[in-house]
Amino acid sequence: MANLYKKDSPFQVYISFKKYLDVLEHIRYNDRLEYRVNYAESLIEKTKNFKELKEGFQDISLLEKNGDLIRLLLADLFPTGLTHNEIKAASIPLSNITFNYTERFKGILKDAGTDFEIELRNISDNEFYVFCCCLILQAYFKKDIKSTIPFYYDIPNKQGIMKHYKITVNSDFTEIFPTEDAKIPSDDILDMLLENLDDFKLWKKYFPSQSWILKGFTIISLVDCTSEVALSDLKSSMIEIDPEDLNPNENLTEIFKSYFDVAELNFGLMTFNKKEQKLDKLPIYESVLTNHILDFWINTFDEETRINTFNNLSHNSKPIVVSNVNKLDENVRQLPSFNILKDNNVNSFMVIPIMKDNDLLAIMEFTSPIAGSFNGLKLKKMEFFSDMILFSLSRFYFEKNYQIEAIIQREYTSIHDSVVWKFRNEAEKYFTASLGKKIYTLKQISFKNLTPLFGVSDIRSSSEKRFNLMLQDLNQQIEWLIDILTLTNSDSEKFTLALDVFENELNNEIKADTEQRFQRLLREEIHPFLQAKLEVRSSREVKTKIKDYFLQVLSQTDLFYNHRKKLDDSITLLNRKLADMLDENQIKAQQIFPHYYERFKSDGVEHNLYIGHNISPELHYTSKVVHKLRYWQLKTICKMELEFQSFKQDLPISLDIASLIFVYNEKIDIRFRMDEKRFDVDGAYNSYYEIIKKRLDKAHVKDSSERITAPGKITIVYFGMENQKEYLEYITKLQKKGILQHDIEFLKVEDLQGITGLLALRVSISQDDTVN
Predict the structure, then answer these.
(1) Which SUPFAM superfamilies does the entry link to (predicted)?
(2) Cys staple from 669: which of 356, 486, 560, 682, with CB 3.0 to 4.6 Å?
């Protein structure tokens, strides 16, 4: 047998005691103590007929055959007085073949069972090969490298608990030398290899398989480091969420068995939901965790008892440790919670709150059917990984929140802060189901029985302005084109005639498709013609005019856009300033009572507020909240009007705005529309509110052609006298502040389709720029 390793290596391995026999020879001729000389001489004499012990052998059956002689030979290295204390054996270097055990080592292997085979832990074949090469560099090439990969044996005890032993190796009695086929790399190559420890193929190129001799034996000593290894395993096995791999670590309970040295152990963990004052299971670990006590807490206690329990835990976060359930006080044994322990064969347990900054994050439980499994000393061991548990839970909560936010953004887009809690609840259910690899359909998000507030600051006559500016742009473009075409040859005459027709149509009898037909003429005929003129010999004047013309053309439409751009820029600036002011004031409105708020920018700024108990169920809600927000809305729109007056003169195009508030007393429901990613009123009855809002935009005063809205004035539309009285009080307050003038108009709104009986108040905004 040329290779005693299961793994491939650069070595041919021979078991040999030559170097130890050389030590005995040295004692025989150099030691001054007669008894040591006689001892060494006696051993040498006993082994002289077994030349293979010195020359080396590969037949491992000889180890058993010469077991007594080897044990006698190595007696100095394995003192009888320490045989029941030390975990020690002789070994073929870096192999699982061991012999000459101490009595303690023999007992450990006996408890592991006859089927157990000792193996090195956590080292791959490639890592093993490179490590063997590093031993050659150390022993033969005298390279000062620290090839100290820690090696471990995992050996179960009699109770089945996996114990972990760190191996220390004495290699004094080994020697390494090359075969005739070995390569002897230069120092430069050795340095290069050390810079590429992960390149297994490169190492094998310079140290081919079985090209070196490893002769001798090693002495291995084992140290029980079960707690340290289990603690290390816990660092990578504690609760963590990997969105790419939602598989739990099935060994978690086994690791705790090793760490606490408890053969029959169950581990449970639930996170604490502070907002709902309840424990939450971790679906990803349901197959791993066993929550006897915690299940009882969440399924049996009534809500009041459960909340009191968690409050007590938060203020008194001491763990509960019961070594022997049967020795509990008689009064405790009468409680319902005692029955749950007996029903689940729990005879010893620990319940440990996990706290951070005086907040309860989670609760752990350890239970065992074996009395005496847990005590104060076991609890003390918790201190060594308490920080790790906090880190793991913090990471879990971070990852959970990240995933929930991702679900909200993906499924709902940006949501207003006042209602995000309901989306989070739904997203959390979705997330929890995904951890348990279950299908969960996201439910519709809706809020019922809300009071709506609607307001708009509309740009007056924006459509008319846009039409007139469009005419100016197109007429200017036609003038430019006719001017250019006049300078070109007679082949442009047909274009000039077509432009004359369009000019007459624009200014006299414009049709719905006039602009589109004009675009087609430009794109398909005139612009290609002008581009061709730039490519051929034309006068400098013509080329310059053509280039200047194209500088004014908007490439997306092929049309002049100068005047309309000024209007669009004016509208953009006006909308931004008014929307920013509305958003800024919304912060104060949310402090009155949290509510759903949305605003839209088009030709002006409109906003919706929806207020009700369902938006913030944990707060006290009364009708006074609506009154306060209605006053806030009126005051804010007045401020927006005053703000508009301050920057109106700076707009590229002169604009006016007219503001309107619609007061609606009936309750409505809103529902989040998944297709449009926004809230909308829910149901046919509630749509009546939306219909009124849309028809008020162009509504007139009854029996007149005058619009109910007017620049520089606030119009408040309502149904009954109760609302009139309410808003007159608000107007009076604002008049005293100098924000509104004393020119209130009482109006009736014309009958709209399906809508009658609407009334309106209209009042002018103060012209005093100093009003705050």
Answers:
(1) GAF domain-like
(2) 682
